[in-house]
Amino acid sequence: MYLESLGKLALGSRLKALSDHLYGAVDQVYQARGARIESRWLPVLRYLWDVGPRPVTEVAEAIGQTHSAVSQLADKLVRAGMVKRRRDPADGRRSVLTLTDKAHRALSELGPLWWAVRQGVTDALGEHVERLLDAVAACERALRERPVADAILAAHAALLAAPLEVVPYAPALRTHFRRLNLQWLERHFRVEDIDRAVLDDPERHILQSGGAIFFARLGKEVVGTCALLQESPGVFELTKMGVDEGFRGLGAGRRLLDEAIAEFHRRGGRMLFLESSSTLKPALRMYEQAGFRLQPSVRPGSHYERADVYMIYEPAGRAPRAPG
Amino acid sequence: MYLESLGKLALGSRLKALSDHLYGAVDQVYQARGARIESRWLPVLRYLWDVGPRPVTEVAEAIGQTHSAVSQLADKLVRAGMVKRRRDPADGRRSVLTLTDKAHRALSELGPLWWAVRQGVTDALGEHVERLLDAVAACERALRERPVADAILAAHAALLAAPLEVVPYAPALRTHFRRLNLQWLERHFRVEDIDRAVLDDPERHILQSGGAIFFARLGKEVVGTCALLQESPGVFELTKMGVDEGFRGLGAGRRLLDEAIAEFHRRGGRMLFLESSSTLKPALRMYEQAGFRLQPSVRPGSHYERADVYMIYEPAGRAPRAPG
DNA sequence: AAGAAATGCGTTAGCACTAACGTATATCTT
DNA sequence: AAGATATACGTTAGTGCTAACGCATTTCTT
């Protein structure tokens, strides 16, 4: 299922779907067996059954709902003849919900059905339902201590406050080089053989021939990468630039690009070019701003299928803009 | 929380509450950060973002919702300027949903916020959320193979078809003797010292003095118990009769009672009595039907605080009804 | 090719729930 | 004791979803 791929982002949706499935199943069973009750009534009815007459708010709190939900449900239960509302003589604000005899009779007949529900859920879901119950209980407890919204806002603030830094290659970062590049390659193109070779062994294909690789980190996250490949002495290619989809727009790409250009200068390079695709509009704009100029034709003898854009680094005042 | 005590019966309610909490938290964050998006939109928008324009039904299926839910959500998204509807030229029935440029821009800015959501959920819920995800995924898969409703109906049918049998005491059943009696004692009264002694060691307190204990089984479930205690030679007390709340109304109580009376006769008893409480109306009715007669006063020297009813076994034609 | 069946989708009515409000009553403050 | 504040509850409007329906179009059947 697609939602599974969204992981924690779609957890709410999936929990709701599961919940609806369970409600629906139980209602189906009640109906098939002629039980004059609905699954949504159960928390209120069982609570009143277990602890006796109780005012609306107390019921609401016990079953984790708003008082108005309970009040409206009580209307329905009164109409169904299952509960009675009474004023609390000790406190005129309270309206005490009491089970009718009919409800007592109905509930006591429901025992075997409830047993079947428990048993059926166990049969259908096996041990998973136990793990689900445990996990739900643990999450409920955790939520009571710290609302998720606070945690998210704190995490977001921490992320925005985190310094964006560019660091050189280190072996521990190799998997990030691969991950970050596969992300855009797989989304927009297909992974060519030459890509796979470079991503599998960047030390050999890039560093050994006098190139460099940089990574952008935001806090503890590695959010982008870019490589400088020495094609022939003094001639460098800017390549394998990728910023994680989740961290675009934070300037990581530009910082990586600037660092690569600085490295090109530090190494006394004569020429710096890149190949790209016309479908990557935002990237092309960034390259232009950094000093790359679009060339009128594709680079002769390009390595890549996808390359239909050829740009050369010609910052203002260094070389005239190519005509056309 | 009360719902936790209901176990599998209230799983649906709890999942819904969790789901609502998560939706609410994310919406709160979106609002706090000025993101012009709502949490409910995410599955549709992300799906269109990931796989491109798609017709309504396909989106619905991918995210596990009905087509009309998606259709109505699409209305809203169109109003918000996030998607466009287009007729599929190849199939005039289909209306293809396409993200607008505005949506693309909005979504690509949301990356850090989504990272924060994932991170915040992890911070707040810790490892529990991983277990929850795993359990949810496992349950989803199990549900696809076997709908819960079927399993419940099958379990119910099996229960009703199961034979109700009465079996004598066996050491392996001791915990059931305790469990079944504590259930009604704790609900209606309080557990007196004498109760605890008997329940902890029924072999010594009941069997050794010439008594007997019976259990009712329904399929594999032990659903009721009852004891015959020899108070003095030939004088027996019917006591510790309990039927699981979940299995009342199936005749287990009557079957136990009949078996106890038969045992009383087999042992050549002279007198059989019981003590009970006037609050246990259904039980008293059953005793009457089985041949017990209400006595005008409490039994002299009763062991129990709760006893305000004294009955003696006097089946029709065996002894005259006590006057008064 | 023509009719029958299936499919895709929008619409409507209805349900469960929430947020926000209003009213009555109780409790606190001085 | 009197006013201020808090509490308990019902009501209303609105949201997100489903089930059921109806229309348009496509696909199957012969």
UniProtKB/TrEMBL annotation, chains A, B:
Pfam families: Acetyltransf_1, MarR_2. InterPro entries: Acyl_CoA_acyltransferase, ArsR-like_HTH, GNAT_dom, HTH_MarR-typ, NAT_camello-type, WH-like_DNA-bd_sf, WH_DNA-bd_sf. The lineage of its organism: Bacteria, Pseudomonadati, Pseudomonadota, Gammaproteobacteria, Lysobacterales. It comes from the Bacteria. Gene3D superfamilies: 3.40.630.30, Winged helix-like DNA-binding domain superfamily/Winged helix DNA-binding domain. Keywords: DNA-binding, Transferase. The keyword Heme does not apply. One of its GO terms (molecular function) is DNA binding. Residues 164-316 form the N-acetyltransferase domain. PANTHER family: GNAT FAMILY N-ACETYLTRANSFERASE (PTHR13947), LD18367P (PTHR13947:SF37). This is DNA-binding MarR family transcriptional regulator.
